[in-house]
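Contributing new records

If you add data, match the layout below exactly. Sequence lines come first and carry their own label; structure lines follow with theirs. Keep one chain per record. Anything else will be rejected by the validation script.
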Amino acid sequence: MRDVSTLVVAFLLPAAAKGSAQEPQQPAQPIPPVEVIATKIPERPHDVAASIEVFSGDELRARGVTSLKDALALATGVAIAPGGDAGPASAVPEFWGVREFDAFLLVVDGVPWGGAFNPAISTLSLQDVERIEVMRGPAPVTYGATSFVGVIHVVHRSGGANDRSAEIRGGSFGSGAVSADLPFGSLGQWKSRLSGDFEREGFRDDRQTWFSADINVLRQEPASPYPREGTGLSTQVPLDANYNPADAFLNENRFALSGGLERPLLGATWATMASYTFSGQSLFRGFLTDISNTPNNASGSREDIDINDVYADTHLAWQTIPQLRFLAGADALFASGEGRGATFTYTVPLEGSTQTAVAEPTTFDKDAGSDRRFLGAYGSVEWRPISRLSVNGGVRLNATTESRGEGAEVTHTRVSGALGAIFGIWEQDADHLRVFANYRNTFKPAAFDFSLAENEGVLDPETSRSYEAGIKVRAAGGRLDVEASAFRMDFENLVTSTIVNNQPALINAGKTRFKGVELESDFWLLNALSARASYSFHDGKFVDFAQDFNGVPTQLAGNRFEMSARHVASAGLTFVPDRGLTGNVVFNYTGDRFLDMRNNALAPAFSTIDAGIGYRTGRAEWRLDGRNLTNRRDAVSESEFGDAQYYRMPARTIQTGVAVRY
C-alpha cells in the first residue's frame, strides 16, 4: 500500500517551453524528436550514435500510465520490476541484463533524482509529463552521478504550458487518485504552472530563465519479500503473506528546488542550472529470517535517514562553423546523508495471516553516514565532415571524495569518455538507413545504502568499458522506425549485496560481463493507431568473482548473473483518436532467470498483459485500465535487505477514472 502526495510548481521566463527548440515533426511521426540525455543539446534520436527511445507524454496518457513500469512497458531491453525494498511506490529497472538499484541514472528535468546516492524512484512524479527519454548504455560524459547501463530522463511540461486538466480514478484494493494540472498565474514576463496529485495505491526564445519546486509526501506500508528454499521460493510461505511488524511504514518527505537560465554568450549558448534537495526518511520494517514457527524468527529495523544534496551544472555550446559543434562545461554534486536507528528481533506466525505488534525502539544505537563530493569537468565535440557522417567524442575528468562514519576520506581522480559515429548509408526525404557504433568508458563511486550493519568502509569505485553497434532505419514516409543493436560491457567492482551480522551490506563483485542484441520497431499504422514491438537477448555472466557461502569461498566465474533474464520481449498497440473510442494493449515477456549466484534456482519464464479502453469527447475522457491481467505472481526482484528473499509481481489490478480538460 502506498499514499503519495505530490505538488510541482514550474516557473518560466518568458512564456516559452523549456527545451522547445525542437526540429519540425514529420506528420506521421508525432513522438517528440528531442532528446538531451546523450549530449545535453536537443537532438533527434536517429541522429545520435547510441540506442535512444523517446516516449511522449501524450502517448503515456493514452495508455493510462501511472507508474514507471507502465511508462516503460514498451521500452526495448528494459524490464521494470515494480516495488522492491524501497516500497510499493518504487521499482527496480533492468538494462542490458543488469538489475541493480544504482546501476542506472534517473534524471528529472535535468537534475539527477537521488543526487549522489541512489535513484529516488519512489518519489518520481509522472504527473504532467512532456516526454521520457531512455538511453541504453553508460553516460560517461554528461553527468557526474553517472550510469553504467542506462539513463531515464523524465521531462515535465514547462511553466509556459497553458492547457488545463483534472482527473479522478479508483480501482482494485482501495486504489485511487486525484490530480490537476493548470496554469498558475503570471507576473510580467514570468509564467508559472501548478501540477498536483494525491494517489493511494493498494497495491524557444534565445534567452530564458526557469524555476521548479517539487514537494512529495510519501507514505507506504511495506510488503514482504518471499524467502527461497533450495531451488525455488518457499512453499511454506503463503501468497501475499506479510511478515512486517504491525504498523510498519516506509515514509519520506522530499523537497526539491531547482532553477536555471539559458542565454547567448560570446557567440555560444550558455546554460546553467542548480538544485537543492532535502529528503527525510523514516522506516520501521522487518523480514522473516527463519522459515519456521519458532521464537524470534524475524528481524527488523527502525531508522531515520536525512539526506541533503546540491547539484550545479554550467556549460557552453557553440558552433563556429557548420561542420563542428563544441560543448564544454563543469558540474558539482555535494551530498550528505546520515541514518540513525536500531535493530530488533520478533516473532511472527509462519502463515502470515496476522502481523505482530512490536514496540518501536526508542534508543538508536546504530548509525550509518556518508559525505560525498563529485566534481567534474567535461567537453565534447561533434564533427560532421559530410552530411551523412557524424562523429562525436567526449571526455570527463572526475574528482570524487567520500567519507563514511568516522573513517578517513577516500579520493579518486579518474578520466572517463565516449567516442561514437553514425553514417547514413541511404537517405531519401524522411526515410533513411544509418549505421552507428560507440565506445564508452565509465567510472562511478560505489553505492551506499544506509545499512545499519557494521560500517564496511568505502568500497572500490565501479568501472566499465562498453562497445555498441547497430542500425537505425526509417521507412514508409516516416511511419516506420526500426533499430537493431549489439553490445558488450565489461564491469569491474560491480556492487552487490551480502549479509553482515544479520543485516544487509554491500560488497564489490569482481569482474562481470554483459553482452547481447536488441531489436525495436515503431509503426504508425494510421494517424491514431500505432504499434511498438521489441526483443532483446541478454547474456550476463560472472568473469571472476569469489563469494563466501556458509564459510566456503566459491568461484562463480561462468555463472549467469542472478535475476537477469536472457530473453525479454514486448509488443503493444495504441489507438487514440482525438474523439471517440480509445484502446491499448501491452504484452511483456520475461525469460527464465536464476534467482541465485550459484545458478541452482532457475525461475521459469512468464508473460503479462495490460489493456485499457476509453472514450474521449472534446473536453473529457473516461478510462478503464487493467494491469497484469494474467495475474502472474512471479519473482521479479531480489531484496537487498532480506537474505535470499524476492519480491513478486503485484496482483491483477483494475482502475477506472475520468479526466477533464478545461
